[in-house]
UniProtKB/TrEMBL annotation:
Residues 1-53 form the Pyruvate carboxyltransferase domain. GO terms for cellular component: chloroplast. Keywords: Transferase. This is Pyruvate carboxyltransferase domain-containing protein. One of its GO terms (biological process) is L-leucine biosynthetic process. The keyword Cell wall biogenesis/degradation does not apply. InterPro entries: 2-IPM_HCS-like, Aldolase_TIM, LeuA/HCS_post-cat, PYR_CT. PROSITE patterns: PYR_CT. It comes from Solanum commersonii (Commerson's wild potato). One of its GO terms (molecular function) is 2-isopropylmalate synthase activity. The keyword Aminoacyl-tRNA synthetase does not apply.
Length: 130
């Protein structure tokens, strides 16, 4: 602390540092965005949080293309057994590429028009599920 102010926050990126008790970067950014004004006296990060979603989709797409891009420690190295090659679960925020890969893993190969229709039906259903 410097005159009652925080100079830095130690955070995790991609889960590295969680065991040391650090919070994830995106959690800190969103906590400051959501509560910075009322709890922290107007603190802000200057980070456009809309980019978190976009970046998340880009990372997911990168993992699907080559999981070594972002996964420098494999899940298998720490004893996790994947249900599928990529281990990505589908949800309401999943993109077309993730859905396409999952369908291919299940043995379905859709034309682009069919995939587009399936994607929007999936998004509609996933938005209603918990």
């Amino acid at each position: 602390m410097d005159g009652g102010r925080v100079r830095q926050v130690d955070v995790t990126i991609n889960g590295i540092g969680e065991r040391a008790g650090n919070a994830s970067l995106e959690e800190i950014v969103m906590a400051i965005k959501c509560r910075g004004e009322e709890v922290l006296g107007g603190v802000y990060t200057g980070i456009n949080t809309k980019h978190i979603f976009t970046t998340s989709n880009m990372i997911c797409d990168g993992i699907l293309k080559n999981k070594g891009t972002y996964e420098f420690i494999s899940a298998e190295d720490v004893g996790f057994i994947r249900a599928s090659e990529h281990g990505i679960r589908l949800g309401k925020l999943s993109g077309r590429h993730a859905l396409k890969i999952k369908m291919l893993e299940l043995g379905y190969n859709f034309e682009e028009k069919q995939l587009e229709d399936l994607f929007w039906r999936f998004k509609s259903m996933a938005g209603r599920k918990k």
